[in-house]
Protein 1
Amino acid sequence: MLVLSRQRDQSIMIGDNIEITIVDIRGDKVRLGINAPNTVPVHRKEVYQAIQRDRANGTAKPADAANGAPPPPAEPSTPANS
């Protein structure tokens, strides 16, 4: 695990397109701002674990609905008598 020290308004880059900014520090709580492409799901760990449990139980919503991304386009229908 990489451990970094940052102050408020400082950022960390992950790859070329994910930026994590320290927005606020109050007592033992740190507020993070995460700027990532819509194709990268971002969840708090407890939410991610719940999604994984739901998937394992077969009760999960489609992944795109879970992360707020628009649903993929529907596949074109094929005529039955072609």
Protein 2
Amino acid sequence: MEIPNLFNEAVKQERSGDVESAKKSYKAILEADPNYHLAYQNLGVISAREGNHSDAVYYFTKAFQLNENIKNCYNLAVSLYRKGELEKSVNFLKQTLTYEKKFISAHLLLAQIYQKLGNDEKTEIYLNNVIKIESNHKSALGGLAMFYYERSRYPESLKMIERYLVLYPGNTQLRVIQSEILAKQGNFKASANLLVDMVKTDTGFTNFNETLSSAWKEEDEIVKESLERIQTKAKKKLKEFQTKLELSKENPEEFSPPEPQDALDLSLLYLFNGNPEKAMQYLVFAQKIKENTGES
């Protein structure tokens, strides 16, 4: 059988779900013609799909060496990223952008990598690049919202969240962050109203932990990782506070009520742990303290 015909047969096997036969066919093609880059490319795709990123890197590297195009370059970059070779991935992503400057997936993955590497400046640059290319890009808007929030850049975060929710309404996690930012800015009434609305209308609100993983896709990694970090900290802080509360029952004279900022933090902790009633209590508590002390 001619190699193009054998390749077409391998593709049919792969599409029909007979992946093992397809792999054998692709490898048979490469034995006959070691320079048949499409066979390497498809073996790379199969390996990546199976989670075998070392093999995927090998096959995509061979494919790229034989045919330097945007597809092979980007596939190699993604497999290197999944394998944990971040710096190498960055190099191939930047090379991908020399083929197509507005390739959104490359910009987005670069932002994700730079966040992992702790490079805030470049994370923000590549997220904003995506917005410049596609102003309503869901993952980039969410990513910037959480990027700004974690760095206490609340006005910028709120702006991105509001923009996101107008375009993509109903996201529980971002509405929680929106409520918290409003409270931090002293807008307790708007924050409380938002909380009340969420409790009444969002049936999944109290299942916050369960909805976190299902609400975001792979390209939303920046948002998801930010929320997971906040949630982990929330659980730890809440446990510390509850321990302190338990100890206060034994020694009530040693217990002091939380400061306004601590009360706000506790409000967020309870929100992230699916307890909106407790969250509301601490939000109201923080508001009353600020009113009594004359804080703005």
Protein 3
Amino acid sequence: MNRANTGTADQELDPIEAPPSVVATLRQHILEGRYPPGTRLAEIPVAEALGVSRTPVRLAFRTLSQEGLLQRVGKRGLEVRAFTEADVLCAVEVRGVLEGLAARRLAEAGVPAPLMQQLEQCLADGERVLAGNRLTSSDVDRWSALNQRFHSAIVDAGGSRVIGDAIARNNHLPFAAADSIAIDKRALPAEFRKLQLAQLQHRLIVEALRRGESARAETLMREHAYIGLRYAGLFGLQTPPALSAPPVAAATERPGRRTKLALPVRS
């Protein structure tokens, strides 16, 4: 039976969040240009293309809308939002500055023992994710969860809501959030090496926090923000077309000319 057509089961159980692997796959499809700006997306065709039920796709749409990658059209429709490389890199830089500030303040104040234990647990969880020397969908889910815990722990420990609130507003921009992970399933060995570097950066950040090295913690945290987008070439990953082509002003298209694709565009 086709999992994409199990609508009754989807309505009976609606979890809070989509599996990170589904969200990461859709992000990658948007980055690659498989879903160009202005493309109308619907749950059933996307679910069939990914081989999942409608529920994780519906929740992934919600997440991607919150991140600014999808936008509402009409009463119920969703389409891919147009964005530029400058938009994305600026949003990532803003997050890096804010998270760096949070790390510096935390290092200056001293890391409480319970928080250090939490960060150490994130490092241990990261080692377990990478222990198999390969990536699976469950690995992506586990990494996304621990990565979110790691970043939130540092930001939330600053003693002020100002930084967290600013990051929350910035997270509504495309690829700005710390958990906006995009995985190229055609290059999993390279993606695995990228996560190895991210894990090393986590470890270096924790080391700087433990030693009270505020300037180093801030610098490491700011650089860490770029790993998802700026490090592709180091691992043999191609720069996604969405970050190398000029933006498409989807909002100016005439309704009759709007792109309607049920499946990702084949390259």
